[in-house]
Amino acid sequence: MEEENVDWMKNAEWVKNHLDGMNVDSYWSPDGMGFLLKKVEDKKLVLVRCINHYTVLRSISGLKTLAFDLGYTVSDSDIEFDDVPESSEDAQRINDLYKQIIVDNWKCESCGFPIVEMDASNVFPTLIETTEMLDEDGNVVEYDWWGMILVCPSCGHETTMTIENFTNSHGEVLVHRIKDGNTIYQAHTRQVLVDMVESGEYDASKFCLLGSTSPSGEKIPMWMQGQYCEMIVLEDGEEE
Ligand SMILES: [Zn+2]
């Protein structure tokens, strides 16, 4: 365990914004902090799980004090303890486990259908908004915000997810592709490319290198620029 101590009071404003912004029935587990808490009512928090180590317990105690000052009650009477991780992999496993509990709990805001169960096979990175920002030299630069839009199969409500959240709920593969006309440009991991070459599946005529835009000149996300992609041509009718 890291011996780092979090000064919750120094981050009071951030914690306040986060707690106030949480929906009832949602979870929170700050990265690497070793605990998972749930908001069960407007001003009521419940500690669900934590690592049974004094740095974590001390940190929780500091958070409880701050939350109390912010008008919250925090209950830890039903907390479940996890053993102190024996390695960094083990610590990562616990961190991922807490994250997974959070992701499994994401729901359609309109009807409650679980986000993880929504089909994303037809979801592609979508330009949500372009905003103007100042760069370090004070120049106005355009910044593109990309997201993934999931449609609820139960009620049709559209949920716009950040790339990071979508990656947590549906994995990385669908984020690393674009659709241009009737062609999907899918980037692969090095391992997948190696496997393709070694199995004889690789066909150079079905791959292309993306530039700064799509082949038809549309904007594409920064992380897709310069990617060597497999071209998957959709049959008629397969397209939306
Ligand atoms: Zn819904």
List keywords for this structure.
five-stranded mixed sheet; 240 residues; single chain; 25% helix; alpha+beta; 5 helices; elongated; binds zinc ion; four-stranded antiparallel sheet
**Number of DSSP E strands:** 12
Distance between the termini: 49 Å
Which runs of at least 5 residues are low in confidence (pLDDT < 50)? none
For this structure, the quaternary state is: single chain
Describe the protein:
This protein is an alpha+beta fold and 240 residues long. The chain has three domains: 8-105, no CATH class; 109-172, no CATH class; 176-240, no CATH class. 25% of the residues lie in helices and 28% in strands. It contains five helices and twelve strands. The protein has helices at residues 12-21, 54-69, 88-104, 163-170, 190-199, and strands spanning 27-28, 35-41, 44-51, 73-75, 80-82, 126-134, 140-151, 158-162, 177-180, 183-187, 207-209, 228-233. The strands form three sheets. Strands 1, 2, 3, 4 and 5 form a five-stranded mixed β-sheet that branches. β9 (177-180) and β10 form a beta hairpin. The longest helix has 17 residues, at 88-104. It is elongated. Bound molecules: zinc ion. Residues 108, 110-111, 113, 152, 154-155, 157 line the site of zinc ion.
